Amino acid sequence: MKDPDGAAVSDSPANQPAVPVAHGRHYLYAVVAGGEPRSYRSLGIEGNDVYTITEGRVAAVVSGLAGSKIRPQRANLAAHQAVLKCLMADTTPLPMAFGTIAASPEAIRKILVRNQHAFREQLQRVAGKVEMGLRVAWDVPNIFEYFVNTHAELRLARDRLVGVRHEFTQEEKIELGRMFDRLLNEDRADHTRKVEQVLTPVCVEFKANQCRNEREVMNLACLVGRDAHEEFSAGVFAAAKLFDNNFSFDYSGPWAPHNFVELDLEQ
What we know:
Blueprint: E1 26-33, E2 39-40, E3 50-55, E4 58-64, H1 74-88, E5 94-95, E6 101-102, H2 105-114, H3 116-126, E7 129-138, H4 143-150, H5 152-164, H6 170-199, E8 205-209, E9 216-225, H7 229-240, E10 247-255
Helix pairs in contact: 4-5, 5-6, 6-7
């Protein structure tokens, strides 16, 4: 299990002497429960110091930013992930989307005030938990031919057309394509239910993300307890035993709970 983009993680303690708050634009990494100030020297984007701005019972984890935009370059993505990983050493942060920028420390304080209740609700929801990812894919040379061989309905439709002539019309191709898509999605739903049933004892919540391509069966985000990594791993292996060698399982984590943070920020 690797950190995205091979992010380097500081081994600095979570609570260091306070870093002076810079003026001007700030980059937001996450929101955490309020408490002792946090600081991470030179860990942030552009090598800037990372620190907290607290308002009420929540705090924003930020660093100063020279420009008005931030590019999704490898170094920036790695710095973003490195900060989240440091936070996850002793808490569960609410991660902000990459590229979230505020005009000033005052603007950040306004965000914290206006969204105080929502932040506290979300922090309570994910407290003591982490996100694990699970991808399952069909490991076959040709996904359409695999479905032809495993679904009589599609095989009969294909053979009926082939028996008449060797070339399909555009309308026939569309008809076969629709049937294939329907069967693909039905199988995905069935397989996902089967996997979730096995993992339910160790997962607090699931979120099914969109599959990236035809071969992908499921792309699940799983919210689990911070100390439940071994149980989750065992659950994945147990679920994999329900499938044959035409399926591959790949899990990753722990990550900050990106898929389980539902915030519509008031600014």
